[in-house]
Amino acid sequence: MAAAVPCAQAPDPRPGTPPPSHQALRQAIAALERTDGGARSGVSAVSTGCAVIDAALPWGGLPCGHVHEIMAPDSSGAGLGFVAHLSAQFSIADRRDVMSRGNPCAVMSRGNPCAVIWCGRTDDLYAPGLAAFGLDPARLILAEARDTDTIAWILEEAAASGAPAAAVGMVSPGARGLGDTALRRLQLAAERGGVAVLLVRAEHGVADTRTQARGPVTTRWRVAPLAVPQADPGAALAAPVWQLDLVRCRGGRPARWTVQPVPESSLPSFSNSRTIDHDSALDRGPAAHRLAVVSAPGDGPPAPPAHTRVSRAAG
Amino acid sequence: MATRHAVHGAERIAAVDTRAARAGVHPGQPLTHARAVCPALEAVPADPPADARLLGALARWCTRATPWARTDGADGLLLDISGCAHLFGGEAILLADLLDRLAADGFAVRGALAGTVGAAWALARLAPKDRPIINPGAEAHRAALARLPTAALRLDAATVDGLARMGLKRIEDLYGVARAPLTKRFGDGVLARLDAALGRRDEPVDPAAPAEPLLARRAFAEPIGTIDDIEAGLAGLLETLCADLEHRALGARRLVFALHRVDGGVSQASVGTVRPVRDPVRLARLFRDALNTLDAGFGADVLTLWAAAVEPLSGAQADFQADGPDRTAMADLIDRLSARLGQNAVRRIELRARHVPEHAARPVSVTKPRAPAIDATDQQSRQPRPVRLLAWPQPIDVIAPVPDHPPVAFKWRGHTRRIAAAEGPERIGPEWWLLTPGDADARTSEPRDYYRIEDGDGGRYWVYREGVYRADRPARWYLHGVFA
After folding, report:
1. In chain B, whose CA is at the least distance from the CA of A155?
2. Integer Rg of chain A from CA
3. Contacts across the A-B interface (CB distance below 8 Å)
4. Cβ contacts (< 8 Å) between A261 and chain B: which residues?
5. What is the dihedral of CA A33, A38, A39, A43, to 10 degrees?
6. Burial class (CB in 10 A: 0-12, 13-18, 19+), B308
7. Engineered SS bond to A114: which of A91, A109, A156, A308, CB 3.0-4.6 Å?
8. What is the C-alpha separation between A218 and A250, in angstroms, rounded?
9. Per residue in B79-124, pLDDT tens?
10. Residue B269's beta-bridge partner residues?
């Protein structure tokens, strides 16, 4: 892929002028090739609920208007829980963004900025369980689709319309995933509409390495439940612990964390009274959640301990 | 049974049925008197607007006999059957047909057929004989109306009293009276009505304006068959129909598009929306998928577009802010998804105040109107709930200490899993207030003890044992959900 360098930044041979800034050249090339992930072009990003994970992402959070893939084992609900948490973050962030604009007319005319569309085999999703991760059932719209092509069509329509805060597609285990062309079309549609698209791929078995982990998505995650031995066998079960892998990130590096979802306040309260476009719902919403990192992040070999370097410098 | 309404603050009877009338209740009677006369009286509040709508519907139904039909007052129908009687085989048969059909539907109805509006009104309401039919002619009318009271001329109560005080109690008394003094005393009304009833003065019947159907139609000189042509035709029809809808301040909820083929067949496609719409661009997008199902055969030469269901939609003010169209973007998206996937494929969650977990939150169609606001927070259990709830609980093999300890191992999908930690039990009892006495559904009538269990790999499950522990019967365990 050739990038055209603007002629105005060509080196100037006149004496006395400062040399051209390599940084500016790199920035121009990266913006043209889009490898910086749009970090400097004003893409809005939503916090994942954990400061450590946000720091590892080049956008400071998950960017809207991009396609993200989450892989999870089919027999556990960890993937659904993680995606519910992310959907809730997108939904809350959108609401806050609207409220912070400060213009009452903009708020009134915006209809429902926080709805999230989930498509796929939605028969066995249980809303009160998803609500435990902050996803308001009143903001959830389910679209039933059996095959991957229909799921791709629904996600493209939802992303291009720009209406929902996030669009989640659940691909059945064993079904073929979206092809490269479909993913690129989805990416373009997501950029047009500014809607985050989350693709959930369920895998048979806990870790299926045969599953194709390829495709031009912006970030790819893998969630798996971790068994943590309980200190007191008779006590209530603690919050679940997940192993979260950032397998691929455009403009960032892979990483691995062990996280635990923690509600910020007590259980959120929902009621049937909120309609899809009821504006009074903007003043109260589900409680925010965050992901607490249980152990330190690590990728590759650990860094040498700091005190050794200090002693060498002193010596 | 009777209907009551308030007159000057006091409740009075408005209308009665035959059984109440036989018991001695009559309209205008105070409610307390009526209750004293007939203790078993059931008095419901009168609803004049609903009665008016029903009467309008009956008038439209009467157009099966003649196109000139309209309502007359609050409880009557007026039909002009000039030239229609021969289609039914005679005037008597026409009248009998209409009255019999109305009586079969449960209405208490009287009717009459005469040459003038006034005579028909009088005879229908006050004639002693059932279903009189008067042949046209002044003499026949004079004879028929003679014995009726003066109120039969549609005069108001004050005039009728005045005539009665002068000794003119029947219409035949009016025949011989000098006209000038009567006019001077009571005005034009009395003699005008009399002349109209006898046929000396014309009184035409204005038919009720028929509701125009919302239909757009386009015929072509040559039959068309390609998708592009049909789309172009549909776009034109949508423009016309939407202009008509805007004129009437309505929005379409369901549209039916039909191709009338040259071989006489009709191919139809219909589209529904969640909210009333009258934007031709949005409706054209919804039809895009439906057009593929149409079969044009050898070609279609007439296209019709009909609005089957409409709702009021007021005109929207132009938005002064820059971000206006987001309000309808979500509804538009739902409409497009419903058009392709089907009405019941796009759903939202409805929370209900039920203890049984599979009924507490159900997906319902987006088009279903929202239930009235119930505060489900109290009913929502504070206990954690799974993210996936299996539609049918799957029976599993479980090893658990008796009587009600959580399981130590269970087998599901061929894998035996050892339990590392467990929590529970949470007992969810049957909703006895919903079961009928003869309900033999044992599965829903036994309490369930739910346990949250975690196996060695970190997977968390929601299992339950059905029923309390009984030494003589092996316990039945089921897997109901999966936690995150």
Report:
1. B337
2. 22
3. 208
4. 484
5. 170
6. middle
7. A91
8. 5
9. 888 888 888 888 889 999 999 999 999 888 888 888 888 888 888 8
10. B257
Q: Which chain B residues touch A117 with a CB distance below 8 Å?
A: 333
- Does the beta-carbon distance from A81 to B387 stay under 8 Å? yes
Nearest residue of B to residue A139, measured between CA atoms: B348
Q: Determine contact: A111 vs chain B, CB below 8 A.
A: yes
DSSP secondary structure string for all residues of B444-472: GSS-EEEEEEEETTS-EEEEEEES---TT
Describe the crossing of helices B179-186 and B189-198 by its angle, rounded to 10 degrees: 130
Single out the residue of B205, B10, B220, B9 nearest to residue B114, CA to CA.
B205
Residues near A127 by Cβ (< 8 Å), separated by ≥ 6? Answer: A137, A140, B349, B351, B361
Chain-chain contact of A112 with B330 (C-beta, under 8 angstroms): yes
Element (DSSP H or E) covering residue B198: helix B189-198
| Measured distance CA(B236)–CA(B224) in Å, rounded | 15
**Is B312:B276 a contact under the CB 8 Å cutoff?**
yes
Of B341, B456, B484, the CB nearest to A77: B484
* SS3 at position B359: helix
- Give the global pTM: 0.62
Nearest to B324 among A109, A131, A228 (CB): A109
Shortest distance, CA A156 to any CA of chain B (angstroms): 11
CB interface of A with B, residues 128-147, below 8 Å: 128-133, 137-138, 140-145
CA geometry: angle A308, A309, A314, nearest 5 deg: 100
Q: Are B286 and B335 in contact (CB under 8 A)?
A: yes
Sheet with B43-45: strands ordered across: B10-16, B2-7, B43-45
B346–A150 C-beta distance less than 8 A: no
Which H or E element spans position B233? helix B227-248
Q: Tell me the pLDDT tens digit for each residue of A107-145.
A: 333 334 578 899 988 888 898 888 888 888 888 899 999
* Cβ–Cβ contact A76 with B under 8 A: yes
The residue among B397, B380, B414 whose CA lies nearest residue B475 is B397
User: Residue A43: how many CB atoms within 10 A of its CB?
Assistant: 17
Q: Which A positions 284-303 lie with beta carbon below 8 A of chain B?
A: none
Stretch 257-286 of chain A: residues touching chain B, C-beta under 8 Å: 261, 267, 269-273, 275-277
Residue in A with minimal Cα distance to B406: A234
Give me the half-sphere count of Cα atoms (radius 13 Å) on the Cβ side of residue A21: 7
